[in-house]
Amino acid sequence: PPKKEEPAPVPAPPPLTKVTVMLDWTPNTNHTGLYVAKEKGFYKEQGLDVEILQSGEPGPAQLVAAGKVDFGVSYQEEVTNARAADIPIVSLAAVIQHNTSGFASLKEANLTRPKDLEGKRYGGWGSPAEHAVIEAVMAKDGGNGKKVKFIDIGSADFFSVIGKKVDFTWIYYGWDGIQAELRKIPLNVIMLKDFDKALDYYTPVIITSEKNIKERADLVKKFMHATSKGYELAIAQPEEGAKILLKHAPELNAELVMASQKWLSTQLQADAPQWGRQKKEVWEGYAQWMFERKLLDKMIEADKAFTNEFLPPK
Amino acid sequence: MKRYVSSFLAFLILLLLWEFSVEIFQIEKFILPAPSLVAGALIASFPLLLEHSLQTAVEALLGFGLAVIMGTCLALAMGLLPWVKRTVYPLIVVSQTIPIMAVAPLLIIWFGYDILPKVLVVALVCFFPITVSTVEGLDHIDQDMVKLLLTMGATPGQILRLVKFPGALPSFFAGLKISATYSIMGAVIGEWLGGSKGLGIYMTRSMHSFLTERVFASIVAITAMSLILVGIIEIIARLTMPWLYQKISWQQDEKV
Amino acid sequence: MKRYVSSFLAFLILLLLWEFSVEIFQIEKFILPAPSLVAGALIASFPLLLEHSLQTAVEALLGFGLAVIMGTCLALAMGLLPWVKRTVYPLIVVSQTIPIMAVAPLLIIWFGYDILPKVLVVALVCFFPITVSTVEGLDHIDQDMVKLLLTMGATPGQILRLVKFPGALPSFFAGLKISATYSIMGAVIGEWLGGSKGLGIYMTRSMHSFLTERVFASIVAITAMSLILVGIIEIIARLTMPWLYQKISWQQDEKV
Amino acid sequence: MLEIKNITKTYSSPQGEIWTLKDISLAVGKGEFVSIIGPSGCGKSTLFNIISGLERPDRGKVLLSGQDITGQKGHTAYMLQKDLLLPWRTVLDNCILGLEVQGVARDVGRKRAEALLPEFGLEGFARSFPVVLSGGMRQRVAFLRTMLQGKEILLLDEPFGSLDAFTKGEMHEWLLGIWEKYHPTVLFITHDVDEALLLSDRVYVLSTRPATVKLDVEVKLERPRFRDLITEEKFVKLKKLLLEALAQNKPHS
Amino acid sequence: MLEIKNITKTYSSPQGEIWTLKDISLAVGKGEFVSIIGPSGCGKSTLFNIISGLERPDRGKVLLSGQDITGQKGHTAYMLQKDLLLPWRTVLDNCILGLEVQGVARDVGRKRAEALLPEFGLEGFARSFPVVLSGGMRQRVAFLRTMLQGKEILLLDEPFGSLDAFTKGEMHEWLLGIWEKYHPTVLFITHDVDEALLLSDRVYVLSTRPATVKLDVEVKLERPRFRDLITEEKFVKLKKLLLEALAQNKPHS
Ligand SMILES: Nc1ncnc2c1ncn2[C@@H]1O[C@H](COP(=O)(O)OP(=O)(O)OP(=O)(O)O)[C@@H](O)[C@H]1O
Ligand SMILES: Nc1ncnc2c1ncn2[C@@H]1O[C@H](COP(=O)(O)OP(=O)(O)OP(=O)(O)O)[C@@H](O)[C@H]1O
Ligand SMILES: [Mg+2]
Ligand SMILES: [Mg+2]
């Protein structure tokens, strides 16, 4: 029998570079872009093999700085704090353009504006920043934040406490707010960004270490290009994005993920020219705001805290 | 088995009480899900739970194994060399006051986010009971047995093999059983530090998705796995130490 | 005290090693601060640390007290009524496999946000060793002593007071000491659930502010407080049970 | 004064029924010192448990001064096989344990006990804990505790079983002295033929299980007695008698 | 064969020096059964510890067949005061412990031991663990273990001290039989005068601490001996002699 022709040897693809990303929480719709990029092979196209990890204590900031993971999902407050403590991390992209958090209460409590919160019970986790934020937001509306009663609810979730032990708490609309919609619990939410421009900070953001930027700029660029592509797809096809997220984190509540992803798809890029782009005034404004309220020991150099350099050119 | 009947009944009654109070007081399921709901979640997410459980089991077993090795070596060093015991034992006891959750982040920073830090958390949790029990076992060996072997001209190695090892075995296994109880829990704590698979991950994800019944389902899985591990050790103990479990008939009836 | 000299020296050597390796390997302080830095943080934030420690101490002591009451009552019930022991004991042992961190959020939901859930966490952590030790103490009381009192015509109350209570005391105190070791840690875990004051809060805040040396300072505080508590219990034990600590001179020398 | 009538007792164990006592009858007069001797495990302690009311016989009666006290506790002062000193009580407080149970105020009891300490060789040890006592002293504390209960009859179950031969000898001499002085009514269990003969007015020999009374020997040796009696001819003759009775119990002879 | 020459031993304890043995000399001939009797705590076990090489004397020598073995282990087979059976070894494996330490293969040792089990009343118990044995059987296992070591001299420290009087009597008879058959050289410690006389060819009486040799009695009673010997006249006479020697040790006489 004629000898079968040996198939031409396919040139072995260059070995993939191992890259790790640590999330700021359990996987949620904020992270969909990362999973999409992984699932759709955007990372592989760039020669990367990305592993996505869930975090606990401590957040990813220290791990990124210590070089234990390459990238992390963090938020502007943490990056600011870290840089003030000389921990060299840098924000590469804002995952959501505007702050989607706010003070939520049951509709029947009728707390529609910050001033209404006077004399009400706030359920928080006891960080000094909470006091400052509440006072700032209420001051803008002519209210007195000192009149709010603070109650520690720690790790208890929104739904187990609201309307019982406390009147309002601080939530991310894209997760808890959507869950409330699904449960048909009507809420009033006072969004932070509507009342104090300084509080319209970026949360979450994608970070890496200064060392990576200096020594492995190419890798950072490849990672961010693929990630951008992932988030762009999530913006364009939220249902597809949600499905991919659920495939990688099947423990999540599917209904919640679907609804949340749809809501977020309009928030991710929002009014920015491009997904992920950050503005210096946001970084400086928030740092200044923190410094003024003694939440920071020293002022940070805002333009070192973030960079847009690794986003794909537009 | 028979002697556990009454606790099992008590447990069933507790479950029923729980089921009915949830019903009667209309407790919302995200505050306290009814046992039936938990059972449902257990069944519905069984394949997923199994997958995570396997990861946790691997971590727990590796950590447990590491703790057995570390604990036994340290206990032997302490049991055989008094100055090691005098020096190390107080430090080990004091170290127990350090909350593992406070040290765990350091483990992650030092050893990365892979399986290693989880294994180390399990080992840290498990190693104390094993060490303490084994040291106690070695301490309580009848010194006259050692003396007897000395009169026979035995070497230190023979004394170790013929008297000290077997004499410390019951305490050693007692320590193993305590450690086994905590090993799965240790792995879950380790997973809370970060990772991508395991019951601890399943648990936090469920918690953050407001799926309280799944949180309970994972507690059930943790307990079941712990009990299985303890059971396995009990079986090994019985096989290793038949003399301890031999039925003692009325001693007076075997007269000279 | 003298017998702790060698461990203390070993501890100092460890500290020195740590100090120098941080120096030599240029380990960044947010990864592992040098002991001198920790000492500095300890001194600098002493008043703050003291304030938080007081809160934690109050929680720990209340929880510990609660555990003593719960544990003793349960142990007495189990020690005196065999059917209670047969039913409850296995359940208690199995309950030890449930990670406290998994139940803690429920405590918050059920018992509010005040000091109570923290006290409960401490009590849950502490109550197991106390119960188990006391039950064991009651189990190992010489039944012939009970028999002796019966022949004297003693009532159950008299037997309890004259034989069972004092006979179980040494085990009871052994359990107390183990519990005391874990009580401060329990309070810190409780505080991690949420709160506004206490070492646990101080610790998470320091962690989130990347002040790792303060995290270590709080670990030092936790250890110190635990040791003080254990010491206090040791003193109480010595005062309560003078017969246990009485110096035994060579028994052969007190011949008839 | 104490009469035991046709006592029978069977235990059930996982291995089946254990027939311990079979139709045992014996009597102790007032001020008499009576010993019971018998092989290990024959049921001697069981008999005492029945007399003291700790257990009930299957059949038979216990009479004290003609009154039926079967199954009633508190009529006798029982000194168990072990000394059973409570380690957490001082010597003095161990002595008054029985009085305390009876409801006597501590102070009263302590005074009564303290007066007797020298005679029991316990002077200066009132406030010591039992750990520091030697074996012989422990037995004397246990004995004082038994005496102080003020019961009409003392049941002593192998009080010197755990002592070495020399201490035992001393205790014998001491006990003979105490007995001369107070003449308590004593029922005494022992394994030791020499001990039984030296101390008693009468000796019952029990058989192996199920125990029956094999022999009932009057010990007609004049009192006061001393230790040297052991090697005297009359004594050795009685000993031979007892040893033979015991040997008949052995399964292989 | 075994000679002990001018042995002196002092312990230091927290309460000061304890002078245990003072210039003790004694000798045991080949095939002789020699007993040592003395008050509790006088230093009998200490003497055995020195002979077996576990401890060193302050002064004096231990000679075996003329050879100085002071402080050397492994020349004697020592049966300690407790039976010290290893609970995790079967009866058979307990018996061969000494052989195993000497490096004899297990199989060889087991065969040798198994052949002797019937004679030691242990037939059918080869594969049992010690928990199921009675006190007398335990002592026989310990004795077999000692014999099997194949040493020239056996040191037995109160082997029957923990047995009750009846079991003890049976063990005496059994030991007399074994001794008739094998004629081992034995040095035997006891508290019990009857036991010493019944078993031995010679008895040394030690004084209280510091122990010296008070008396050295040849026991000229014909062999084979049986238990009834105890009540015979020759025996009682010797007993009186020993008891008197012991009584002289008492501080209060
Ligand atoms: N509670 C019990 N249940 C079953 N059997 C028992 C119980 N108490 C004693 N026996 C059995 O009854 C028999 C007699 O026991 P007892 O303690 O009266 O003997 P004894 O003559 O006092 O022995 P010793 O001389 O060893 O003290 C023993 O064989 C024992 O096994
Ligand atoms: N290691 C030791 N350190 C200090 N003193 C000791 C030591 N060993 C024994 N002694 C003391 O030496 C004395 C003799 O002890 P030994 O055990 O030889 O007596 P014995 O005659 O065997 O007593 P018994 O008949 O009770 O077995 C005792 O008073 C004891 O207190
Ligand atoms: Mg008895
Ligand atoms: Mg001795």
From TrEMBL, chains B, C:
PROSITE patterns: ABC_TM1. This is ABC transporter permease subunit. One of its GO terms (cellular component) is plasma membrane. It is a multi-pass membrane protein. Keywords: Cell membrane, Membrane, Transmembrane, Transmembrane helix, Transport. The chain crosses the membrane at residues 31-50, 62-83, 89-112, 119-138, 172-194, 215-237. It holds the Pfam family BPD_transp_1. GO terms for biological process: transmembrane transport. Belongs to the binding-protein-dependent transport system permease family. It is found in: Cell membrane. The keyword Transport applies. Residues 53-237 form the ABC transmembrane type-1 domain. The keyword Cytoplasm does not apply.
TrEMBL record, chains D, E:
GO terms for molecular function: ATP binding; ATP hydrolysis activity. Residues 2-233 form the ABC transporter domain. It comes from the Bacteria. Keywords: ATP-binding, Nucleotide-binding, Transport. Gene3D superfamilies: P-loop containing nucleotide triphosphate hydrolases. It holds the Pfam family ABC_tran. InterPro entries: AAA+_ATPase (IPR003593), ABC_transporter-like_ATP-bd (IPR003439), ABC_transporter-like_CS (IPR017871), ABC_transporter_ATP-bind (IPR050166), P-loop_NTPase (IPR027417). PANTHER family: ABC TRANSPORTER ATP-BINDING PROTEIN (PTHR42788:SF2), TAURINE IMPORT ATP-BINDING PROTEIN-RELATED (PTHR42788). This is ATP-binding cassette domain-containing protein. It comes from Thermanaerosceptrum fracticalcis.
